[in-house]
């Protein structure tokens, strides 16, 4: 649904800015010119550990949580509106999940539909956003802040127990390896290898069990959003407490890392605390600079990304797949797809790794132009 609207006065500019940076970074790392030539910070950690790229998805789920507190805060105090609000959240979650499935199916769904559905990857980024958004919304509406905090802790503790104490069927002992951990076993058992991440076939980074701590990431954002909305606390105090809470979460995450390693693919409990803490510190800094001190002239390129975040993420995944459908005949008579042909114009003039980065940057700038026009026309596509 497309709505013509302007930013409401109560909207946090810093939140749109933070969301915009996160989505722009997501598009940057998802669209290198050559997957074999990527600078290390733009790659995910091989397994344990955390690179800048590993921060992007948890930051987005954290932002989803903050947005829930702002969008649904006025309805929470009126139980008579809860059912209607939850139905709207359910509808939005179905749309997000459906868009994610469509990205997994496209373009084969139009050429080989039977095979496409037989081998479609069911988990995914948009699918996880949908689940986290829906469950975090219901928890927010039906629980006090103290209960939300308790649920967050329970999710982290339960996941830690599952992953480190429950023996894996067929393996005989709990472990955190790629193909033999409990989450990987559950994904293969429920979804089967045909519907998992194509790069592994045996486990999925957005799998079933790891969605539990991903929900905790969303709830982390919800609690930060609730605190930011409080009118009985001055802005400076909010920033101090958010910085303090964020730093504490980072320290706790690093300490838990000693026993339960920080791992994005497993979305470990230590990863939730570490990334949630970093997201809180970043948002607090943005809030102080942009909303309180009013230093906001530099924000517009990222705000235009932030207000249409899901739209640009979906379309940025669709376009490369579409470009690869078109065939180009080169001067030597050989054929290549349109995306490879366009990329060759860059790769011919730069080193492999720099050409790959330049392509990704150009892709981000391409969408910036489109989103800027949409922003100027006050077009916000609400999914």
Automatic annotation (TrEMBL):
PANTHER family: LD22376P (PTHR31061:SF24)
Keywords: Membrane, Transmembrane, Transmembrane helix
Pfam families, per the entry: HGSNAT_cat (PF07786)
Origin superkingdom: Bacteria
UniProt name for this protein: DUF1624 domain-containing protein
Domain (Heparan-alpha-glucosaminide N-acetyltransferase catalytic): residue spans on this chain: 11-165
Annotated source species: Pedobacter frigoris
Regions crossing the membrane: 55-72, 93-110, 122-141, 148-168, 207-227, 239-256, 271-290, 302-319, 357-375
